[in-house]
Design goal:
There is one protein chain. Among the domains are: 46 residues, no CATH class; 61 residues. Helix content is 67%, strand content 0%. The protein contains 6 helices and no strands.
């Protein structure tokens, strides 16, 4: 015969699902077709292996299962441990975030303080230079050494040349 049976037909035969007429046609075809016979034998062997031994559960299986179900033990402990780990991880992350923010603020304001200190040092240096060079004319509120003269240049309503430190500095 040149026509072959389909694998579905052979599988149905192995499982006992064919009608009497189809089974008779299959049994007539198999002796003359090597290919179909080989497929039939392989499927029969696989089916036999699956049906060969019924699995029987161990006698104490249900007892072990019920014991595990009844005891809250290990699983709830594992769940509690995992929940505790999550809490600890969240707390550690929060602490790290606070530390990082504090470090950032410290470095930011520390650098601003350094600029302020440098500016104040520069102002102090300029003040020192001005007071040593122009000690008599730098301070407009300085009292004169002559007794009885106007000690405050603003008291007469007019400004003296000594009252304007910028005019003296501009001449240089």
């Amino acid at each position: 015969m040149t026509d072959h049976l389909s694998e579905e037909q052979i599988s149905a035969s192995v499982d006992g699902q064919l009608e009497a007429e189809e089974r008779r046609l299959l049994e007539a075809h198999l002796p003359g077709c090597e290919k179909c016979r080989k497929i039939f034998e392989e499927m029969s062997e696989v089916s036999r292996l699956f049906r060969h031994e019924e699995l029987t559960p161990p006698t104490d299986l249900w007892r072990r299962i019920s014991t595990e179900l009844d005891s809250p033990g290990r699983r709830s402990r594992q769940w509690r441990l995992s929940w505790a780990r999550k809490k600890i991880s969240a707390a550690a992350a929060a602490i790290l975030l606070v530390l990082a923010g504090s470090a950032w603020l410290f470095l930011r304001y520390r650098s601003e303080d350094a600029f302020r200190r440098m500016a104040l040092q520069e102002l102090d240096r300029v003040h020192t230079v001005l007071t040593t060079r122009h000690s008599g004319s730098y301070n407009p509120f300085r009292t004169s050494s002559v007794a009885g003269s106007n000690s405050n240049p603003f008291s007469s309503g007019r400004l003296s040349e000594a009252a304007n430190p910028f005019r003296t500095l501009a001449r240089q």
